[in-house]
Each structure stands twice: as structure tokens, then as C-alpha cells.
Amino acid sequence: MTDAGTRVVLVTGASSGIGLATAVQSAEASDHVVLLARGRSALESAAEKCRRAGAASVRVAAVDVTDADAVGGLVADLLASHGVIDAVVHCAGVVAYGRFEDVPEEVFDQVISTNVLGAANVVRSVLPSMRERDHGTIVLLGSVLGTIAAPTMSAYAISKWGVRSLARQLQIENRDRSGVHICCVSPGGVDTPIYLQAANYLGRVGRPPPPAVSPEKVASTVLGVLRRPRARVNVGAANPLMTFGFTVLPGVFDALVGPLFALAATDERHRVEPGTGNVLRSVPDGNRLRGEQAGSLTAIALILRSRAADAVRTATRR
Ligand SMILES: NC(=O)c1ccc[n+]([C@@H]2O[C@H](COP(=O)([O-])OP(=O)(O)OC[C@H]3O[C@@H](n4cnc5c(N)ncnc54)[C@H](OP(=O)(O)O)[C@@H]3O)[C@@H](O)[C@H]2O)c1
Known about the structure:
Layout: E1 8-12, H1 17-28, E2 32-37, H2 40-53, E3 57-62, H3 68-82, E4 87-90, E5 96-97, H4 105-133, E6 136-141, H5 154-173, E7 180-187, H6 194-197, E8 199-200, E9 204-206, H7 215-227, E10 232-235, H8 239-248, H9 250-264, E11 266-271, H10 296-317
Parallel strand pairs: 1-2, 1-4, 2-3, 4-6, 5-8, 6-7, 7-10
Antiparallel strand pairs: 9-11
Helix pairs in contact: 1-2, 1-7, 3-4, 4-5, 8-9
Bound molecules: NADP nicotinamide-adenine-dinucleotide phosphate.
């Protein structure tokens, strides 16, 4: 806390989706918010939302989390100006779709680098000052994909297993500091633009599987974790079922995950050309609060209808 009793909260990935919703809710709690992402224009618009929401102060930092020096420089600057960082919510993340052998090496490596090494860079920069004061909370955004496997999402799933592992390692190593909390919040499907922004070598667009929740719902869970830290938090009613199936019934899981993923987590009606999406560089125009893809169950119904129409067309042609 600053002398005035307000929190200093650093949010990475703050220009879109869960990070944006978290930054706005932190601003509503009158925190000093620091917004980090690569693209400046979307950050400026997020900053305006935070100002209107009542932030004690707003600062934007156009920084790539894979740039350890830039992250370290920002954190040193914040400590010099505020004296403390009370909380970090690490939301910066990217996705690539495609069979393992179809995703270019550069894209695969950058997903791992952003999601895992980016988290490590952020933690490495803030943890020493938190340990010194025995005060501070770090929230890492994991995913249900950090506990299971899904076809055509190798780099992302590997990265989220890595994030969950990083959180567990840090929880064990920081048991000697009761005031320092490392928390991993793992959502299932969330209605954000990450699916549309993803690199794609699958040919069809990805989308949040049902039951998708809003970014505001994840953000309010994160704000709850900042008030009352918890090591592991799931957001999404289906997460425990998926993890149970993967762990206890691997044969059944492996047989079902392919067809279910195609139906519930991609939209075969919307073809996409191969491309790197926002993985290698920011695509600021695509950053916003929600993905606004059709409601999950409606989308599944539409896909089934289009599959049925295709089947009828094929049968009539014969
Ligand atoms: N949406 C879901 O269904 C879902 C489910 C489970 C977990 N999650 C996790 O939740 C987190 C937030 O996801 P989201 O859905 O809110 O994504 P999003 O809407 O696409 O937002 C991603 C944010 O990260 C920033 N970012 C990307 N690469 C960066 C980099 N190298 N350095 C700094 N900032 C970077 C983006 O801005 P720039 O591109 O301008 O940098 C953007 O602000 C991610 O870790 C994601 O894996 C999401």
C-alpha cells in the first residue's frame, strides 16, 4: 500500500479481454493501476476506461513481457515512484492453433516464450521487493489447458502446464514469506478476442468452448483473490470434469477430445487463412474486451445444422 492506503496493481495484457476487465475493476477499487501490453493505442484506450472507472492513477507501459530488461526497468521505475507494488496480475498471453508439425517453429517458440518466459520475467522482476517487504500478491493466469491436452493447441497447452508449474514452484519456494502470495487462476472458455487474435494453421477459427464465461467474471474472481489470496482457483463449471476425465479415464478422454474439440472449441463454418495472428507482434485493432463470437451453445447448434445440411446435400447428389 502507498502512504495514502491505496494499492499499486500492475496488470499485464491489460489492453484486452481478462486483463482489460481486471484493470477496470481494479480502477473501480480506486487502485493505482499500471497497464502493460505491447500495443500502445489499445493501452491508451484501456487507460481512459480506468480513469473513468476511478483509478487513483493510471500509467501505461508499452512493453513486451519477453523483454526481460524492459520489464525489469518498468518495475524498478514503479518501485522508485510508488515505493511498493502490492499486486501483479499477469494476463499477457497468446495462442496458436494447428497440428504440431504445421505450426512454424518461430510461432511455436514465441507462444512458449510469451506465456512461460514472459511470466518468469515478470515474477523475477517483482518478487525480490515483495519478499523484502513480506508483502504482495502475484496472480498468474493459467488455463484448464494447463491440466489437460487438446488437439491442435500444443504450444498453448505446453505453455499453460508451464505456468501452472511455475506457480507451484513459487508457492513452495515462498512458504517462508507469509505475506507473499502466488496464485494461479485457471479459466475454461472465456469470451475474449484471444481466439480471433491467435496464430492459425488449422484452417478454421477457434472459439471459447462452453460454458464460456465473461472476462468480467474472471476479473471479479481475480479481484477476490487479491483480497483473499488462494493458491489455485478454477473458473469454469466444466474444468473439474475435463481434468477428471484426462487424469482418471485417459482412454475415454483421448477418444472423445478430438471430436468434442472440433465441435465445441472451433467453428468450421468460418475458414481462416494461415497466419501468425498477434503472436509475433501486437495487432492492436483486435484488442477489446470481448470476442463476441456467437454464444457457445448457439454456435454448436449452428455447426450441427450446417453439418446436417451438408449431409443432406451429399446424400441428394448420390
Ligand atoms: N480467453 C480464454 O478463454 C482464456 C481461457 C483460459 C486462460 N486464458 C488466459 O488469460 C490470459 C488473458 O487472455 P485473454 O483471453 O484476455 O487474451 P486477449 O484478449 O487476447 O489479451 C491478451 C493481452 O496480452 C497482451 N500481450 C500479448 N502478447 C504480449 C507480450 N508479448 N507482451 C505484453 N503483452 C502481450 C495483448 O496486447 P498486445 O498484443 O498489444 O501486446 C493483450 O493485451 C492469457 O494468459 C490466456 O492464456 C484465457
